[in-house]
């Protein structure tokens, strides 16, 4: 296998023609399956920014320009058009999922009220119930409905949004312009915004998600899979071992390597 860094650069669309349109952004996410919005130092995952720009990003405020403005707009349009799920999923960070991978990762029945199956915090459950009753809502309206006040109230609200993202309960769904300042992100229930098949084989879905992860990562440890998708280390290792038995992966010391290693992504 070629050098891991070079293999990932090719697989994560960091080489060749840069992503310059919404359609290409959707194609990128469809190809890799999952991606951060912006890269995070120390977190080895593909990002839409790296596929769209050849400049490293240190501070969004410092780097704001045509590339940042374009990528920032795509994060709102992609989920609104049903082209990609967007929320706080990968390691709890702002990230995208391709619709087919979303269907495999989605952990509940697919009913609009299926969040009742989850042991959510009171704040997270209130947000979900407001969305169920009232439809897509801007975060400004949700903050008002929950009487969010002060630093601690804001921290609890943000923690609830992260919780809802990690459990795939909600997706971003565009923005609402409220005049002065930044527009408010609009949230919607994932089960209403995207088609989630009601009849799914959990075991097959788990293996499809695992091979999608490994194919994109080229090489990964069970902890990488567990941290990214919120699985237990035991479930992640079991899925990767199943891929080895099926000839879709091979062991590489304590890690696993995809059978497709080095083949690169669709461009």
CATH fold call of the largest domain: Arc Repressor Mutant, subunit A
CATH architecture of the largest domain: Orthogonal Bundle
Please trace the helix and strand order, writing H or E for each element.
Answer: HHEHHHEEHHEHHEEHHEHHEE
What helical percentage do the residues reach? 40-55%
Side-by-side strand order of the widest sheet: 1-3-2
How many DSSP H or I helices? 13
Question: Quick check: average pLDDT?
Answer: 93
Q: What is the CATH top level name of the largest domain?
A: Mainly Alpha
Oligomer: single chain
Unreliable parts: none
Give an account of the 3D structure.
With 267 residues, this protein is an alpha+beta fold. It has 3 domains: 100 residues, Orthogonal Bundle (Arc Repressor Mutant, subunit A), CATH 1.10.10; 80 residues, Winged helix-like DNA-binding domain superfamily/Winged helix DNA-binding domain (Arc Repressor Mutant, subunit A, Orthogonal Bundle); 57 residues, Orthogonal Bundle (Arc Repressor Mutant, subunit A). The chain contains 13 helices and 9 strands. It starts with a helix and ends in a 9-residue tail after the last strand. The model has no long low-confidence stretch (mean pLDDT 93).
């Amino acid at each position: 296998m070629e050098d891991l860094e070079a293999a990932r650069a090719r697989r994560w669309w960091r080489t060749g023609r840069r992503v310059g349109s919404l359609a290409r952004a959707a194609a990128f996410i469809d190809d890799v399956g999952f991606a951060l919005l912006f890269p995070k130092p120390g977190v080895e995952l593909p990002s839409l920014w790296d596929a769209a720009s050849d400049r490293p990003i240190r501070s969004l405020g410092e780097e704001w320009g045509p590339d940042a403005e374009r990528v920032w707009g795509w994060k709102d349009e992609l989920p609104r058009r049903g082209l990609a799920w967007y929320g706080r999923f990968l390691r709890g960070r702002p990230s995208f999922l391709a619709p087919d991978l979303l269907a495999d990762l989605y952990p509940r029945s697919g009913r609009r009220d299926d969040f009742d199956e989850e042991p959510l915090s009171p704040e997270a459950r209130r947000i979900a119930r407001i969305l169920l009753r009232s439809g897509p809502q801007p975060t400004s309206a949700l903050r008002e409905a929950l009487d969010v006040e002060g630093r601690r109230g804001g921290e609890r609200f943000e923690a609830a949004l992260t919780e809802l993202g990690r459990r795939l309960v909600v997706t971003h769904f565009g923005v609402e312009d409220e005049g002065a300042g930044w527009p408010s992100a609009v949230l919607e229930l994932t089960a209403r915004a995207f088609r989630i098949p009601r009849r799914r084989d959990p075991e097959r879905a788990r293996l499809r998600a695992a091979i999608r992860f490994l194919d994109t990562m080229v090489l990964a440890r069970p902890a990488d899979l567990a941290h990214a998708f919120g699985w237990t280390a035991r479930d992640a290792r079991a899925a990767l071992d199943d891929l080895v038995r099926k000839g879709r992966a091979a062991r590489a010391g304590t890690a696993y390597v995809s059978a497709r290693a080095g083949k690169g992504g669709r461009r």
